Each structure stands twice: as structure tokens, then as C-alpha cells.
Known about the structure:
Structural class: alpha+beta
Amino acid sequence: MTEISWLLLTYKIPPEPAAKRMAVWRRLKGMGAVYLQNGVCLLPKTTDHIRRLKMIENDIAEANGDCVILETLALDDSQQDKVIGRFKRDRDDAYEEFLDKCDDFEREVAKEVAAKHFTFAELEENDVDLKKLQGWLTKIKALDFYGAAQSTEADARLKACEVILDDYAQRVFEAHEENAQ
């Protein structure tokens, strides 16, 4: 078994104000943490994660909470596989949501093509939407520590969205060249 070290954070924050608890939860989820149960989460051990968890530790203390950060290993391969599986499932959920947004993007461009609505304003709006998709996928990939299954499909779908927008852009340019003559 190749040993993988994780950082285990256990914490407790008073229920009120709820905003402080939610802020900690959001930061941990934003780092890619997997929750084993309420107030108990894991992250791969990296210097960045150690630094960020220490900062969260300070936030928890300021919220009159308590926490402990530990380095841990899985007991055996099956336990390690369970943990890695949890990380992969979380990322696959994020990829699935991303793929749904790709569907929305493709439908929106197809609607504009069907309506022969080839304007620069619409092209710019769709370009902004594509940039959002690109940024979102970059964020998901940064948290995909163990290569979730949906990663490859997400890459392919983003490329397909880029091709669709390029095709739409070409139609917009052609429509404006025809109108200029």
C-alpha cells in the first residue's frame, strides 16, 4: 500500500451566529475537503493545506470554537480506497453539475442559431458564459486530487462548447460581412 497522508480537522463552533459556521464550512469545501461527519473533514496533506487549515483554526478560535488538526493515514488499502472514493465522488458531483451547465450553454447557442440571431451582443454574452465554464472547470480540477471519473468527459465537453462558440462566432462575422455590402 502506498501510504497517503491526510490532514484530519475536527472542529466545533457555537451554533450562533450561524454565519461563522457556514463561513468555515464554505472555506473547507472550497479547499476540496471531504466531510466524514459533522465537524470532521479530511484533506490531502500539502503545505498549502496545512497553511490554510492553520488560518481556519484561527477563525474557529475567533468564533469561540475549538478544533484539532491531525495528520493521519488509512489503516489499510480498503480504508484508503474508501477515503479516495469519497474525494472522487465529491469531484464527480461537481463535474456533473458542470456538464449540466455545458448542456445549458449548448442549448442557448443552438437556440440563437435556429433563430438566426447572429449579433455581436449575443456573441459577447455567450463568450462570457464560456469563460465562466472555463474558470469553473479550472477550479474543479484544482480540487480533483485523485482523478475523478468525470474529468475526461468534462474536458471533452468544454472543448465541444469552445467549438460551438467558434462556429457561432464565424456565423456572426459572416452575417455582418453580408450586411456591410
